[in-house]
């Protein structure tokens, strides 16, 4: 490989939002310049919880359109939906037989998603970290852009790679390294600065969706939770004020500035003034993406073609790796 190989994926479950864009997609776009990038709409992961089939089809296209609109170049990067490449599922089954139950029992996200009714959760929801490892290792990806909440899953992928290599006495799978990039790696809810911005939050006011109009964005930022004090005057003060920290970090990421620069520009000002500036910045960055996304969603034939061609390119990389994996395991 002439460039480091990056793999990352996003679930087709509901609207992508500002947290997805600032925490992941914007960085994916930047990585295209000096990495070999494989980006995946992870529809196999999506069905670990029930999905209406028609809604899932629509969501796969919508998320793919969002990625293209945000700057993922499908001629430079590989963009596809996961179910098009069988190596993901085949490698995941092998990893089901490599990973240990104790490893999966320690995964905090399963506990959060399954809640109190763990006995009623699907086997797929429990084992999906093994599929996530397969997503990465099926391409021998060397780097994975992750948020703080995904670092545990990447560690599992590294453990699986190490155990597979040890068990079979080979150096087949590399241990992928994390890439944590940008000012806003963890964007919080507009309603609660201590909780992550999420598609699953019942309040649409908690997030800015990539489908939101300028009026929607203005309204949500104006209503965003703040504290009664003027804006912080030092970076240290920001850390103790979660709502201020969230809004100022979002501004810094949208403006490609450091948090220290934002603090210096707005120190001691009222939130009303800052929110107007944040609205202008958010609208200027997000509106072109929203417009292009709507154009692409209206052309499903183009989006389907991108995913089909991306799947073919991805399969061409994964096929010889899977064949060697099977040979190592002993499959005839």
UniProtKB/TrEMBL annotation:
Residues annotated as binding ATP: 11-13, 19-20, 147-149, 187, 196-200
EC category name: ligase
Residues annotated as binding L-tryptophan: 135
UniProt KW keywords: Aminoacyl-tRNA synthetase, ATP-binding, Cytoplasm, Ligase, Nucleotide-binding, Protein biosynthesis
Basic and acidic residues bias spans: 192-204
EC number: 6.1.1.2
Residue ranges of the motif 'KMSKS' region: 196-200
UniProt region (Disordered), positions on chain: 192-214
Signal sequence extent: none
Motif ('HIGH' region): 12-20
Alphabetical list of SUPFAM superfamilies matching this protein: Nucleotidylyl transferase
Catalytic function, reaction form: tRNA(Trp) + L-tryptophan + ATP = L-tryptophyl-tRNA(Trp) + AMP + diphosphate + H(+)
Assembly with partners or alone: Homodimer.
Family (UniProt): Belongs to the class-I aminoacyl-tRNA synthetase family.
Protein name as catalogued: Tryptophan--tRNA ligase
Species of provenance: Oleomonas cavernae
Origin organism lineage: Bacteria, Pseudomonadati, Pseudomonadota, Alphaproteobacteria, Acetobacterales
